């Protein structure tokens, strides 16, 4: 199964939602994470459907403010990155060698997202945003190192979803950190 431009574009959505959510948090009229707030935050992203799927996947989102939604977005990114990291670790033989660089990058990504969650919990939103941005940079390094897409179709789909999530998290954090 080949990865389409749409799949890759979906990763951009995560980045944008993250920025939008961070901006929205400074708007005092958005206090509760009700459907209206989630809709507004997600509407301001490049991939509103993916944003809604992430935020709606957590029952706490209905009571969260934008800061809370940022945490949920980071958790979505962390879960996806951990899944990719585990998939890369499961590869053996030639594939494992081919993915060694990506595995190193995803180790860094998982660590940075874990630190981003900790920074978010400590109300250090700018630090959290910077760590998500660092994770996104490592993601692109991994993607650039993969030069045989025909062999990596399944992985590329998961990578695309991961990038979308990172970009959404970044977009949400951008709304609460200046």
From TrEMBL:
<dbReference type="Pfam" id="PF04043">
    <property type="entry name" value="PMEI"/>
</dbReference>
<dbReference type="GO" id="GO:0004857">
    <property type="term" value="F:enzyme inhibitor activity"/>
</dbReference>
<keyword id="KW-1015">Disulfide bond</keyword>
<comment type="similarity">
    <text>Belongs to the PMEI family.</text>
</comment>
<dbReference type="InterPro" id="IPR006501">
    <property type="entry name" value="Pectinesterase_inhib_dom"/>
</dbReference>
<feature type="domain" description="Pectinesterase inhibitor">
    <location>
        <begin position="33"/>
        <end position="172"/>
    </location>
</feature>
<feature type="signal peptide">
    <location>
        <begin position="1"/>
        <end position="33"/>
    </location>
</feature>
<keyword id="KW-0732">Signal</keyword>
<dbReference type="InterPro" id="IPR052421">
    <property type="entry name" value="PCW_Enzyme_Inhibitor"/>
</dbReference>
<protein>
    <recommendedName>
        <fullName>Pectinesterase inhibitor domain-containing protein</fullName>
    </recommendedName>
</protein>
<dbReference type="InterPro" id="IPR035513">
    <property type="entry name" value="Invertase/methylesterase_inhib"/>
</dbReference>
